[in-house]
Amino acid sequence: MKGKTISQIQLGDRASFQKTITETDVYLYAGITGDLNPAHINESYAKNTFFQGRIVHGILTSGLISAVLGTQLPGPGTIYISQDLKFHAPVRFADTIIAEVEAIEIVVEKNRVKFSTVCRNQNEEVVLSGIATVMPPK
Questions:
Q1: Which residues contact 59 (CB under 8 A, 6 or more apart)?
Q2: CATH code assigned at 27
Q3: Residue 27, CB half-sphere, CA atoms under 13 Å: how many?
């Protein structure tokens, strides 16, 4: 299975992936990465923070962008080169996040594509945005 090559990608091409974030997802991510920040895993602590409850790791949420790029557009064989991110709002346990990418720049001679990246929650609120640069498969 191979993703789209640079000649198969057009400006404006889009793809998305949707996932409901569970408590299990957050605990598995915390265990894998070692990020045991109590804002993510300790409700007693988190209820006294600015967010008044546990929030999902921002980078866990951004990982959904990787799922789109690596499985859909461009797809299998894609190499993720860089990602700029801005976090706009917290993601809560049980939020359904839609990660979307859109091709905004194609550099054929370098085999690079830039994508606008956005994650929204079930209320259509933008929770993060940025720009990804990838190398599609040849």
A1: 33
A2: 3.10.129.10
A3: 5
| Distance from chain centroid for Cα 52 | 24
Query: What residues make up the domain containing 58?
Result: 6-135
Q: Is residue 1 part of a domain?
A: no
Tens digit of pLDDT at every position of the chain (138 positions): 799 999 999 999 999 999 999 999 999 999 999 999 999 999 999 999 999 999 999 999 999 999 999 999 999 999 999 999 999 999 999 999 999 999 999 999 999 999 999 999 999 999 999 999 999 999
Lookup: tokens for 70: 């690596």
Count of domains forming the chain: 1
Q: In what order do the strands lie in the sheet with 126-135?
A: 14-20, 96-107, 112-120, 126-135, 79-87
